[in-house]
């Protein structure tokens, strides 16, 4: 059985990609509260819910919402993010990346 | 601002809350705002409006009253509407298991940022018309702007159109058939009454090609 990628590790990985300014939680604020509380307990420097990793009957589903920097083409940044997530996930994983801000 | 003015973002924050946060130099830090893309884009727009308002007051001391409140209010209301996520505009990727997109709100905020960065231009509104959710479907972008009194509407329109075209080409996969510019206001030393009574509306449409 394949181990699903770790959300915190994925977030750190994405933040290291040129053109990625920020990652925003894909879940609504109410869901973030519990995760934030857990992050406080573990003193984790990166919030665990920034990149959503879900196991479904069809396989792994990864979702990320990012801000791209304006000094690089946002669409290329988006593709780099997708490729990075695909490389970290098992084959056939479903990846959704949305650019929600260009700053 | 009237009761009907839509100033609440999809995340629930209001333009008034964000203005107050901006006025307090974003202190104390509010994680709800600082981790919300809509709020951050709205803050960018509001920051520009606040700076513009200060500039106009500084230039017009001794000659003119404060910039028309209704004008500023309209821009703030437009900012609240435009930063909403809106549609998901697809970006190309070869892998069919991938969904890559940019929000309409991000694109409108980008257009506003590009326009507001041009000296003498203040963006009023930005609209994307067409089936923007389908790759390769032609879309038209219509921008309403105010220009500084004394500047050439034609010249500024051309600069604005060129920079918006470049930004959309650089950051999105939209097939932009036209960028239409509507200059519907003049700012600086014109009194509010003159703006509504005398200022012509200049529309510059680009032929879709």
Q: In words, what does this structure look like?
A:
The complex is a heterodimer of chains A (103) and B (209). In chain A, strands 1, 2, 3 and 4 form a four-stranded mixed β-sheet that branches. Chain A has helices at 7-15, 29-42, 74-88; strands spanning 20-24, 51-56, 59-68, 94-102. In chain A, 37% of the residues lie in helices and 29% in strands. By secondary structure, chain B is of the alpha+beta class. Chain B folds into two domains: 1-83, no CATH class; 85-209, Alpha-Beta Plaits (2-Layer Sandwich), CATH 3.30.70. In chain B, the strands form two sheets. In chain B, strands 3-4-5-6 form a four-stranded mixed β-sheet. A two-stranded antiparallel sheet of chain B has the order 1-2. The longest helix of chain B is centred in the N-terminal third of the chain and has 24 residues, at 37-60. In chain B, 35% of the residues are buried. Classes of the chains: A alpha+beta (103), B alpha+beta (209). Chain A binds chain B through residues 24-25, 29, 65, 67-68, 70, 73-75, 78-79, 82, 86, 92-103, and chain B through 11, 32, 35-37, 40-41, 44, 85, 88, 91-93, 95, 97-103, 105-107, 109-110, 113, 170-173.
Largest interface: A-B, 26 and 31 residues
Taking pLDDT < 50 over at least 5 consecutive residues as the criterion, the unreliable ranges of chain A are 44-48
Number of helices of chain A: 3
Under CATH, the homologous superfamily of the largest domain in chain B reads: Cation efflux protein, cytoplasmic domain
* Most strands sheet of chain A: 4 strands, mixed
The chain-level structural class of chain B is alpha+beta
Examine the secondary-structure arrangement and name the CATH architecture of chain A: 2-Layer Sandwich
